[in-house]
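To: structure desk
From: M.T.
Subject: fold request, one chain
Message: Could you run this one when you get a chance? Sequence is below, nothing fancy, just the single chain.
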Amino acid sequence: MSLMELLPVRDVTACCSPLTREAIGEDNASNLASSLRALADPARLRIISMVAAHEDAEACVCDLTEPLGLGQSTVSHHLRILVEAGYLTRSKRGTWAYYKLVPGALDGVARLLVTV
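Reply: Done. Structure tokens follow.
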């Protein structure tokens, strides 16, 4: 008698519950992961919050450096990442760049957090 003959047979389907809604697809998961990486930094989360708190949800680099306690080049680096991820837009006025929240850009992240 082999070992396989001695082991009891288990019903593997009993432990698995069916999906009640569609799970995130591979492409969407990859895009969302990239977006979340852009937010996965305390300074960037603070920048999003600070821009949102400014009048018209728009702020200049000069408005952010002192409150963040970071140099202008570091703040600009974080802002570039947030622009590339689609959370902020950038407009140049004279020598200063102004950043504004993209309407609805955080909606996908908010939906993800609500459904978790």
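Reply (cont.): Residues 33 and 65 are 27 Å apart (CA to CA). Let me know if you need anything else for the meeting.
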